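Hi F.,

I've been meaning to write this up properly since the lab meeting, where we talked about keeping a consistent format for the predictions we share between groups. The idea is simple: the sequence comes first, exactly as it goes in, then the structure tokens exactly as they come out, then a line or two of notes. No screenshots and no reformatting. I'm using this chain as the first example so we have something concrete to point to.
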Amino acid sequence: MAKNTHDVIVIGAGHNGLTAASYMAKAGLDVVVLEKNEWIGGAAVSRELYPGWKYSNCSYVCSLLRPEIMRDLELYKYGLQIIPYEGSATMMRNGDYYAHYHDHDMTINSIRRHSHKDAEAYERYSRDVLRQCKIIKPLLKMTPPDLTSFKPKDLFGALEFAKHFAAKDELGGLGEKEIYDTIRFYTMSIRDYLDEYFESDITKAHLAGSAIIGTALGPCSPGSAYVLLHHYMGEVDGSVGAWGYSRGGMGSITKAMTGCLNAHGGEVKPDNEVVNVITKNGRAIGVATKKGDEYYAKKIVSNLDVKRTFLKITEESSLPGEFVERVKNFKIRGSSGKLNIALDGLPEFPCIPEGDPGGGGDMHFTETIEEMEGAYDDWKRGEWSRNPYVDMCIPSKSDPTMAAPGKHYMSVFIQYVPFNLANGGWNEERKQEFGRHIVDCIAEFSPNFKDLINHYEVRTPLELDNEVGLTEGNIFQGELTMDQLMFNRPVPGYAQYRTPLKNMYMCSSSTHPGGGVMGAPGANAAREVLIDMNIPQTGNYY
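Output, unedited:
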């Protein structure tokens, strides 16, 4: 039986695990990352599953990755390039379309085509959402204080959190009205929020999409407004809320992180699934792998979600009973599916004028909030949505590395798709039926689409669970609702990346500030490990 000793073991080579590992390796620690799959990257991967085409077969766009982390880890030095979106569009069944652009004035003119009132309201909407982004962004890199603790660290941490809600800025800061608005924003549905600004169905439908992607909430569900903010608080090239493609697919992000880790002496070991955390007297001292090997370390950091970490690879008898019950009650519900499609050419979308930048980013065909809520109703019945919300894009239009010359790759993200499919669950036949349904939906807006398809991969929540390790296929590793944010994420009393087991930490998206290819949970967890080991921290992020 092989026996290895390191300073730190990280379980899982997803982007947060690699972020944490890279920061700790840069600080001089001996770090090893153990990954169950033969490939590296978790949900941020690029895979050639059909000859000549490269798929970002899970996550598919880049925005949330913190720029400070990119600078600290020198990811551009290791090959990372982000190509900004030029725009996005929603196609309409009457042959028209609605578009947003990187250029603000173009967006206003686009909105004005559908509603003069909405064009005027968009300025106010943009200002108010930007204010919420400016409040939340500094909190991303903070360790949430324990509000029940009277330790100086937690008392000062609570004051630090609070000051961001009262800080003055170029938008005028937060007065009494703005504080009330902020509290309402965190608990409102996206439908109610958008109704306070806009009158046009298509304006509201286009904007509401960001509030339902990846979550088991509908547009009328309280709390869905915050999910929109979660997607808006990223940036590309200093542009807040912008989105972009990672050249070479999303795997280029984790490839660059692996390059940084290797350059500082760290190592990733693929095909090494951790099946058990080894404990002794209330301490985590090592891990055992499926191969029968054991690895020991001073610190263990899990990049698995909270349920997988404490209900699958940790002995329940070593944990407090109340903690285990809270973990069992943590909401991780699958609601998303995906198609990755190899195309023989560029599909035509007659609704969007040729050359319009709106067709260069994400494209949709949901025209009303009611359609979106209907799609959610199907999910609640255990069915995939008959009229789904799709977030589709063709990265190869901007990134020629994804397909051969003249060929194209399309990514199609779908809401809503249940993990627990009614009437017998998922099997290969129903999986392919679901894929054909999505192809048919897209073909309604593209006359040559089906003729161009060489291959497509269908991914249901079941594949995301079994293959990637996302419980129920939930891309955020836990709902982004107020009861599961900040001080409560993942479990009250354990929101500071530490766990009931001494020397064991969490760095996954189940921790603050949540999901998306952000890197913040990984960087934050690394900071806490370094603090506990009395090792100085450096970098833009800290």
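Notes:
DSSP finds 17 helices and 20 strands in the chain.
The mean pLDDT is 91.

If this format works for you, I'll send the rest the same way.

G.
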